[in-house]
Amino acid sequence: MNRSSVKLLAPIALLLAVVCLIGAQNPAAEPTIGERVDRVFARFDNTRSPGCAIGVIQDGEFVLRRGYGMANLELGAPLTSSSVFRIGSTSKQFTAAAIVLLAEEGKLSLDDDVGDYLPELPEFGTPVTIRQLVHHISGYRDYLTLMTLAGLRDDDYYTDEDLLGMLSRQQELNFAPGAEHLYSNSGYWLLAQVVERASGKSLREYAAEKIFEPLGMDHTHFHNDHTELVPDRAYGYAPADGYAPADGYAPADDGGYVISMTTLPMIGDGGVFTSVDDLFFWDQNFYEGKVGGTGFSEQMHSVGVLNDGEELEYAFGLSVGTYRGLRLVSHGGSFVGFRADLLRFPEERFSVICLCNRADSNPSLLARRVADIYLEDQMSPAEDRDRQRRRPGEEEEGIALGAQALAELSGDYYSEELDVVYAIRQAEQGLEVSVAGQPPLPLLAVEPDVLRAQFLTLRMERNASGAITGFQLDAGRVKNLRFLRVGE
Predict the structure, then answer these.
(1) Any idea which of 168-172, 245-249, 346-350 has the lowest mean pLDDT?
(2) Strands 61-68, 257-259: parallel, antiparallel or unpaired by DSSP?
(3) What domains can you pick out in the chain, each with its CATH number?
(4) What is the CA radius of gyration of the chain?
């Protein structure tokens, strides 16, 4: 190389060095995928609050595993991919898997009458099948709602025997079996009882032997004993002020947290304790069939069908649909201070696991935002999202009731199915209803004989002479509970 060439290259080299230096110092430089994910979880990433653990799986390998926030605020323990969370209803797919495996073993049929295994349950004229329980088309009233209506809270204690007694007192279903789809935790708790009676082992024992141990999920179990020690457990928390924003993010200024756990021993509808690391093995089983064989994935993804032939998006503890043009299999979970979701895009061999230990989080939304980052080139354009935060308690307009109407609506009403009395009384602003020593709720008259209080709708009933004899109660996953007027 001659001297003139050297003179020519020198300024070019200097220019390149300056460009590289500017790029390195430029805060507007394109962020990496990991940095973009960090931004999604930025508000959780501190040592003062609980948070979330995230795992991203691509083509059979983790491409990202991170924890944001704390597993235990008292001990200062951070969240990691090995932290063990309660995953709420994300557990349902494991209960459904146990049913699938028992059917493969010939120990039950999906079209068996549930009453064949649980003769304690009342007969409703039409048999309820195991398959109908799986797809939430059985009509069984949701037990968590029933217990709330009976005056119990998530931190109150009751047993499986108490729950079976409650379901045995029900005089009707929400609807005829197979006629509608309505999510019911009762159905999956009943499936856990079917597993035990068909196999001779509890769901915890059966799932450990047939699912968790073969897959190497060494830190996963159905948790049916609240006194049991759990290594690496993440504690559940809720905001001290009770406010949970709708967009999945905590308020900018955290108001502090309280422990939010449960002593309930019920499993089947929930109750799985697991980690991001362990859920990797479960996710991969849908491709490998190590548990259940080659037909396992297809059976787990088969959706329910109503009596009129309508196909649902709910399969075996899994929702099967699409997201931004891609096929998506998922199921979220939410109980006490825990939130969870596991998203799988089967054709892309891509999954997102998001487990959170704070009630003011929305891992279903957060996991989709992570998927947006990784799969953005394969997705159709995103729809506009309503990200406006709404605080609960927006007032509904009602009608004014006269003194006579207030007087005749006031009284005590008894439900045999709940074994509880509701007291309706006149208050300063109209009417209120109370149950089992709980704080009274204000009642709003939306029609002359229709009252509402939060998620409750009371439809008053009258006899031929016009006197009020009781009411029917609707409460989301519970319909047509009958209360009779007493004490007059």
Answers:
(1) 245-249
(2) unpaired
(3) 68-77+80-247+255-375 (3.40.710.10), 403-486 (2.40.128.50)
(4) 27
